[in-house]
Write a structure and sequence with these properties.
44% strand; NUDIX_hydrolase-like_dom_sf; seven-stranded mixed β-sheet; Nudix_hydrolase; Nucleoside Triphosphate Pyrophosphohydrolase; four-stranded mixed β-sheet; Nudix hydrolase domain-containing protein; 290 residues; 18% helix; NUDIX_hydrolase_CS; hydrolase; elongated; alpha+beta
Length: 290
């Protein structure tokens, strides 16, 4: 094989996961006569940044607009005798594999590039890939074996605001995890922001009212793996500071922020929460115990 022409190719790909599925591209019959699926991505143009390349390739192969992380894994494959451009070559493939994600409300994938190396794009169950039901290129299995969800720790502040025997709660929109459940008004603390300042801002954004923040009632935390509103798969650890809060007696809470993770706000009877009639997150139950 030493006399074969040498060809080196650098390509960028993305592992894009969603609720137990992975986004894959099917190689065209001009590449292989057999059904074979691989990660969306492809070769870098001369002078092109790998992250720009993979976003471009994902769009061409699946029609979806992806976001990719800052870091990647690199795989090297030496393929002497590989068939390239109608002849045998001594091939060396460098594959840069990023973690990627698409919005949770992204449309179904479809191939935009005509006459390329991809003939179809689809979501496939990861289990079907791992057990061999879906035939995939070895790179897919390598990337899945190395993949770890993005670790995210989030500090948030929430308000425990009562009116008689009612508690002020907000409902999580379809854009948020635990969609349809009710929780305390509040949200993430920005870098350098005081938790109390953050909570005043969040109550204003979610409920349209000005809150006065009192004592810290309890600290609650939750740890789970799931899909973030951005579409990124995350190993999520939330630390929740729950403060007592008050609002003016004549204040009328209403959702102000549009397109966020809150789609309703209401005064909820405590008896309705205790009976389980109203689905609430654990942070609400924890706050009621204090």
């Amino acid at each position: 094989m030493g006399g074969l022409p040498k060809r080196q190719r650098v390509a960028a790909y993305a592992v894009i996961l969603r609720d137990g599925e992975i986004l894959l591209s099917r190689l065209s019959e001009s590449v292989t006569p057999d059904e074979l699926w691989t990660l969306p991505g492809g070769g870098l143009d001369h002078g092109e940044d790998p992250r720009d390349a993979v976003v471009r390739e994902v769009h061409e192969e699946t029609g979806l607009d992806a976001v990719v992380g800052e870091t990647a894994r690199v795989y090297s494959a030496h393929l002497p005798g590989a068939w390239r451009e109608g002849r045998r070559v001594d091939a060396h493939a460098l594959r840069i594999v990023y973690d990627g994600w698409v919005p949770v409300d992204a449309p179904e994938p479809r191939v935009l590039e005509v006459g390329g190396s991809t003939m179809a794009a689809a979501w496939h169950p990861v289990a079907a890939v791992l057990d061999g039901t879906v035939p995939v290129a070895p790179m897919v299995l390598e990337a899945l074996a190395d993949h770890r969800p993005f670790q995210r720790q989030r500090l948030a502040a929430y308000a425990f605001i009562t009116r008689g025997d009612e508690l002020l709660l907000t409902r999580i929109s379809p854009r948020g995890h635990h969609s349809g459940s009710w929780t305390l008004p509040g949200g993430g603390v920005e870098h350098g922001e005081s938790p109390r300042t953050a909570l005043v801002r969040e109550v204003r954004e979610e409920c349209g009212v000005e809150a006065t923040i009192g004592d810290l009632l309890t600290v609650h935390d939750v740890h789970f793996e799931g899909t973030a509103p951005s579409g990124r798969r995350e190993d999520f650890h939330g630390v929740h500071l729950v403060f007592r809060g008050t609002i003016d007696d004549d204040a009328e809470p209403r959702v102000v922020e549009t397109g966020g993770t809150t789609d309703a706000v209401a005064w909820v009877p405590l008896a309705e929460i205790a009976s389980g009639e109203r689905p609430v997150l654990d942070v609400v139950v924890e706050a009621l115990r204090t």
